[in-house]
Every structure is written in C-alpha cells, then in structure tokens.
Design goal:
The chain is mostly helical and 327 residues long. It contains 12 helices and 4 strands. A hairpin with a 6-residue loop joins strand 1 and strand 2. The chain is flat, with a radius of gyration of 29 Å.
Length: 327
C-alpha cells in the first residue's frame, strides 16, 4: 500500500521546519501515579476481609432489597414528574406580567429553597395531626360540602412523594426560568408579529429551544432526587432502598456489607439515568452544533488553521458549515 500523503510533502517550500514531538514527561508521570493509586484502591477493596463480599453477594438480590429498589424508583419518578409540571408553571408565573402571580411564584421558591427537605418531610408526616380533615366548602365559613379524614389521603407514601415533589419544584423552577430567559427575545417578537398567542409561543417556540439548556441540570436533579429518597424515613416511610438495607444490617450486625449493597444499586440506577440523560441531550441539541461538511469535517483543525485546512496553506477548499438550520 502507498504511504499516507502528507500535506505539502512534495512541494519545494523554503525554510521548512522539521518539528520534533514534544516530550510530555509530566502527564506520563501523573498517569503512572494515578494508576498506582487506582491499583492500590482496587487491591484494598478485594483483599480487605472487613468488606465481607460474601454477604454483599448474598443480599444483593434479597427480596427486601428489590422491594426497596421498586419504591425508590416509584418515589423518584412520581416526585420528579410532579416537580417538573410545577416548575414549568412557577417559571411561567415568574415571567408573568401579573404582579400577583410573580409574587406567589417568588414566595414559593423562597420558602421551599430556604428550608431543609428533611424538615419539610417531617412536616408532611405530621400533616394529619395539623389538619385532621380535608374538606371542600365556602371559604371563611363553617359551611362544608365534602370532607375526608386526612390520614386516609396523606399516607406515608403519599406524604413522601408530595414532600419531595414540592421541594424539588422550587429548584427546577429556577432551572426552567434560566432556560426560558436564554432564548433570544427576538423569537418571541417574531412570533407575536405572526399573530401567535402567548401560550402558543411558549409551547411551540420558547420551550422547545429552552429544553437544550434545561435538560442537563434537570438530569442532575433527577439523579439527586434518587438519592434524596433516602430521607423519607422522616415521614416515616420505611420501604425504600436505604431503609431496607439498614434494617437488614441492624438484624445481622453487619452495616458495611449492606451499605455496599445499597451503593451498588444506587450506582447501577444512576448509570442508567446518565445514559438516558445523554440521549435526551443529543435529541434536544440537534441543529445547534456547527460541523463542516464532508470527510475533512471529521478531522480536527491544525494549530492556527480552520477545520479542514491543509497544513501548508496549499490546495485550500471552500467550506460549507451547518449552523442550526442555516447552511
């Protein structure tokens, strides 16, 4: 096979520089040191008898642990679904021209971001004590059309996802607001010029573009919510993963291997969520990344050159670039 052609190889270029490869001693030494530390860590994890890996594998698929995973996922999905809907409403209210809606949104975000989630979960666990009955009637009067016992509605499970969702909505609202404000105001002005209503502009113009910015931090919040479910014992709700492994460790007097079991399952679920987040980012990021056309577009640009430009400034090619929807 013929040797690979180098740009400008057969040209008579005066004062051609024969560059030597740069010696990178620092990165090589750093890589060796890091590899040694990693090998020591792995060796310690495998050979340390106190980790008791036999017990870890025994209880990794225990029925109580699997039941805890189910409730952890349920709490995470339900809480995040409700929090996302509330966050979009709060962000839209925050940008409303109505001062009452803006004030209510600001107060909600201020209150739920300013108090610990554990305290809020304790409050929802005591909700039936504070409000024994939930009813519908005429406000500020004793007239009541319908009522029900609070304990039958605000159960431990319902109190857990409700507390998590209301707290998370305050954080997501600021993420959504940042995404909405990142969209060029000219998009809204152009849509108004076409006669579109505010709700249609928000649904068809602003939100689809803002999703590219909203998705990454929302994915982080989703992963954070998965781990925050370990606090629902404050309600108390005692069927999620962390409490299930803690109950087994208390019975066996083996806290370390059961903590490892919980860590393994949290890492597995988090890894799956990270893959889903990456796919969503690619989906909503379509058309925003600039890329040169053709085979040269796949090559990284050389120092001081644009993408696809040869090394010696010979045989240049015109470049067409896709940026968004413009060619």
């Amino acid at each position: 096979m013929a040797n690979k052609q180098v740009d400008g190889e057969n040209l008579d270029i005066p004062n051609r520089i024969k560059a030597l490869p740069v010696r990178r001693t620092g990165p090589v030494v750093a890589a060796i040191v890091v590899a040694l530390f990693a090998a020591m860590l792995v060796q310690g994890l495998i050979t340390n008898p106190r980790f008791e890996w036999r017990i870890v594998w025994k209880y990794l698929f225990n029925e109580n642990v699997l039941e805890g995973i189910k409730y952890t996922l349920l709490l995470t999905v339900i809480s995040m679904a409700i929090a996302i809907v509330l966050a979009v409403l709060l962000a839209i209210m925050r940008k409303s021209i109505n001062p009452v809606l803006r004030g209510v949104s600001w107060f909600y975000i201020w209150f739920f971001r300013g108090t610990p989630v554990y305290t809020q979960l304790v409050f929802w666990g005591l909700f039936a004590v504070l409000v024994p009955r939930i009813g519908i009637g005429i406000p500020f009067t004793s007239v009541e059309f319908w009522s029900i016992d609070s304990q039958s509605v605000i159960t431990a499970f319902n109190a857990a996802w409700l507390g998590l969702a209301l707290n998370e909505a305050a954080y997501l609202a600021e993420i959504v607001r940042a995404g909405l404000e990142a969209v060029d105001p000219g998009q809204t002005e152009a849509a108004k010029a076409l006669g579109m209503k505010r709700t249609l502009i928000m649904r068809r113009i602003i939100l689809p573009q803002a999703m590219r910015i909203i998705i990454p931090p929302t994915g982080n919040e989703f992963i954070g919510m998965l781990k925050t479910t370990s606090l629902v014992n404050a309600v108390p709700f005692t069927l999620e993963l962390q409490f299930a492994t803690t109950a087994i460790s208390t019975r066996l007097y083996k806290p370390i291997p059961l903590l490892i079991v919980a860590c393994i399952w949290y890492l597995v679920i988090t890894s799956i969520l990270m893959v889903i987040q990456s796919r969503l980012e690619k989906h909503f990021g379509k058309g925003f990344d600039a890329r040169p056309i053709g085979a040269r577009g796949k090559r990284a640009p050389l120092p001081g050159k644009t993408a696809g430009e040869p090394k010696d400034d010979v045989n240049k090619h015109n470049e067409a670039v896709f940026t968004g929807m413009t060619a």
